[in-house]
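>> received
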Amino acid sequence: MGERILVPYDGSPLSQRALERAITKYPDAQITALYVIDPLLAVYEAEAKGLPAASTWHDRMIERANGICADATEQASNYDCEITTATENGRPARTILEYADEHEIEHIIMGSHSREGVSRLILGSVAERVIRQAPMPVTIVR
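>> returned
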């Protein structure tokens, strides 16, 4: 049995690269692709598109999460690898760290969006927060 690796996965090209790295560099690992539903996205959507009903927003986010997890599973199957997928609700950095702790994850491999300037100040850096607070090794893929 290999080490337990967590790949925060949002379907972006960098998260795809992080998953690919986990699969190719750690072929014997137990890999979990984690998608985090961020409730603050509801606030952003409400501002941009008008306030949807809470149940409608949540249903859309679950549907999106299921699609993203299916994409991760498909990507892994391209390498003849089976992975586990999971979906959690919460602030991304905190949720990633909590999931890693609860599931005895030994290594996190994640993409960095490399935001700079104002967008970094406004949106923050999930990768930076995970690196600073994780008790296990964290590999950042760019």
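>> The chain has a mean pLDDT of 87.
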